[in-house]
């Protein structure tokens, strides 16, 4: 069941409006949006210890391991090659390919900005044809983590992507599931909360989509998809 909610300070959403008109870039968070779990680092660290995990734990967030590190013995299990094997394709949100294909047909660039794993983001980008991606990394040699994406300052990453393609905030949509993702809104015309984790995110978003299907975003933002779906 897909639900849509308008942002409180905005006018009511017009069901006959094409909100993707004049949009040139859509930026996705990864954990909780393109992947069903909300914390890829929880998955990776637990898998590196040969433990199973549901991917819903919040203790092993990137900020936590960035500040505290992990036991030295684990770094040999955190190479890019090994991290790649930790991604369970059953965890991928449904209809990513259809969503990205639709956006490509409209000449809308796509990107991933995630505090999750850069390796996971790169794999999804290659698999589904996403134009740009950035995530956080492990420096195995020096036993530390590299922060390319600050969860509270994702707008700086969005700005870099916009500059690369000559795209303005008024031509950008961002999609996230956590309150931290709202930092992308500072560089976006619209913010879509996809299966939001908090009420604050619902209240701040332009659109709220509760669905297991990523294509729900398209169905709610593109008017002809509403009438033809």
UniProtKB/TrEMBL annotation:
<keyword id="KW-0028">Amino-acid biosynthesis</keyword>
<comment type="pathway">
    <text>Amino-acid biosynthesis; L-serine biosynthesis; L-serine from 3-phospho-D-glycerate: step 3/3.</text>
</comment>
<dbReference type="GO" id="GO:0006564">
    <property type="term" value="P:L-serine biosynthetic process"/>
</dbReference>
<dbReference type="Pfam" id="PF00702">
    <property type="entry name" value="Hydrolase"/>
</dbReference>
<keyword id="KW-0479">Metal-binding</keyword>
<keyword id="KW-0460">Magnesium</keyword>
<dbReference type="InterPro" id="IPR023214">
    <property type="entry name" value="HAD_sf"/>
</dbReference>
<protein>
    <recommendedName>
        <fullName>phosphoserine phosphatase</fullName>
        <ecNumber>3.1.3.3</ecNumber>
    </recommendedName>
</protein>
<keyword id="KW-0718">Serine biosynthesis</keyword>
<dbReference type="InterPro" id="IPR050582">
    <property type="entry name" value="HAD-like_SerB"/>
</dbReference>
<dbReference type="GO" id="GO:0005737">
    <property type="term" value="C:cytoplasm"/>
</dbReference>
<dbReference type="GO" id="GO:0036424">
    <property type="term" value="F:L-phosphoserine phosphatase activity"/>
</dbReference>
<dbReference type="InterPro" id="IPR036412">
    <property type="entry name" value="HAD-like_sf"/>
</dbReference>
<dbReference type="GO" id="GO:0000287">
    <property type="term" value="F:magnesium ion binding"/>
</dbReference>
<keyword id="KW-0378">Hydrolase</keyword>
């Amino acid at each position: 069941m897909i639900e849509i909610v308008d942002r409180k300070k905005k006018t009511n959403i017009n069901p006959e409006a094409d909100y993707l008109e004049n949009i040139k870039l859509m930026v996705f968070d990864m954990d909780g949006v393109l992947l069903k779990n909300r914390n890829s680092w929880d998955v990776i660290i637990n898998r590196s210890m040969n433990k199973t995990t549901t991917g819903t734990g919040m203790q092993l967030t990137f900020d936590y391991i960035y500040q505290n590190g992990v036991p030295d013995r684990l770094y040999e299990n955190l190479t890019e090659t090994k991290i790649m094997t930790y991604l369970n394709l059953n965890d991928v949100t449904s209809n990513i390919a259809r969503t990205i294909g639709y956006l490509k047909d409209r000449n809308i660039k796509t990107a991933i900005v995630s505090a999750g794993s850069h390796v996971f983001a790169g794999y999804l980008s290659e698999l589904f044809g996403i134009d740009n991606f950035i995530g956080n990394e492990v420096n195995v040699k020096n036993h530390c983590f590299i922060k390319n994406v600050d969860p509270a300052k994702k707008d700086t990453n969005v700005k870099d992507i916009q500059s690369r393609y000559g795209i303005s905030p008024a031509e950008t949509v961002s999609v996230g599931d956590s309150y931290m993702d709202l930092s992308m809104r500072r560089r976006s015309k619209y913010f879509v909360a996809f299966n939001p984790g908090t009420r604050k995110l619902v209240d701040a978003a332009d659109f709220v989509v509760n669905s297991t299907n990523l294509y729900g975003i398209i169905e709610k933002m593109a008017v002809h998809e509403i009438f033809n779906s």
